[in-house]
Each structure stands twice: as C-alpha cells, then as structure tokens.
Amino acid sequence: MPDGIAAGAELPPITSVAAGYVHRDKLITPGDLVTLPDTRLKWYDIALADTPVPAEIHGLARDFIAREVAAGSLKVSGEPGFAVLHRCGGDFYFLAVCTWRNENELWETVYAKTAADIDFKLFPLPGPHRGTFCVWELGTVWHEQQAWRRYLRSTRDAAAHAAYLGDSYAGPV
Questions:
Q1: Helix (H, G, I), strand (E, B) or coil at 84
Q2: How far is CA 6 from CA 1, 12, 13, 149, 151, in A?
Q3: What is the pLDDT of residues 66-116, one digit of tens each?
Q4: How far apart are alpha carbons 116 and 134 in whole angstroms?
Q5: For 42-46, 128-132, 148-152, 164-168, which range has the lowest pLDDT when averaged over its residues?
Q6: What is the structure's pLDDT at 99?
Q7: How many C-beta atoms lie closer than 10 Å to residue 133's C-beta?
Q8: C-alpha span between 62 and 101 (Å, rounded)
Q9: Which of 29, 9, 160 is nearest to 83 (CA)?
C-alpha cells in the first residue's frame, strides 16, 4: 500500500468526476507545420471522431497564431514547439501554443474561442492552483515530451531538428 493508506482503510470519495460522466476517446490529428518568421511549430487538432475541428476554425486558429507573433503578443522566436487546437465540445475551443525553453521546460500560452467570439482570445488562468492540460491534450504532450527527449539526446543539428519537426502523433487518445 502507498504510504499514508492503511490496509482496509476507506478512501474518501473522488468528487471531481461527476457520477454521470461518460469518458470517450478523441482523435489527435497532426497538421502542417505553422511556419513563423524564425520558428516552426508542429500542429495538432483534437476532437471527437464524429465532430472534427471545422476547417474554418482550424484556419482561423493558425492565422491567429501568426497575427499574435507579428503583433509581438506571442514571443516564440527561435523556440521549437507545437500548437494544440482542442474542440472541447460543441463550439468551444482551446488553442495551446507550447514551446521548449531553457533546454527542458515546456512553456504554454492558452487561448480560447466560443461560438460567440469572432476570434481567439487569451484565456485567463487565475489562482495558484489551476488547470493545465486535460486527459486528451496530455496525449499530445506525452508524445512531444518523448520527441523532445530524442532531440536533446541527438547531435542537435539541422537533421535532428528536421527529425523533431517530422515526429508527430496521430490516433486515439
């Protein structure tokens, strides 16, 4: 038994999962690289198989990242990484832009869009204890963590950089 759990002890109930919640797999679909002035980001859409990310939202999100970089609001110069566009349900989307900094740290900027929004906007993350990645987004993060480890252990030359950018995951999560 783990420390702090006596054999036969009754555990407190997990209250963060609603009794009626039914978990479904989603699909991770990689897309073309996001080409910015001095970096490239891998692209991933995440959605239920029967409700993929619409092409117009996909295009809007990619354009939004380019506009944020051009405006100086998103500073990812020279930082490899990836973007995740997650259709969370209906017409709500998270757009997470993640880059590798300081050799081994994953940094993230989160945007969101609702049906009422014309464009994506910065998603407020208040408080010291807050959400990071959901169970589906973690599938992408896990793959990217492994790909980045392979890059760090490589010669880190142009071929290794190209190999990192070409290493994407597609499938259920």
A1: strand
A2: 7, 13, 16, 38, 43
A3: 999 999 999 999 999 999 999 998 899 999 999 999 999 999 999 999 999
A4: 23
A5: 128-132
A6: 98
A7: 19
A8: 21
A9: 29
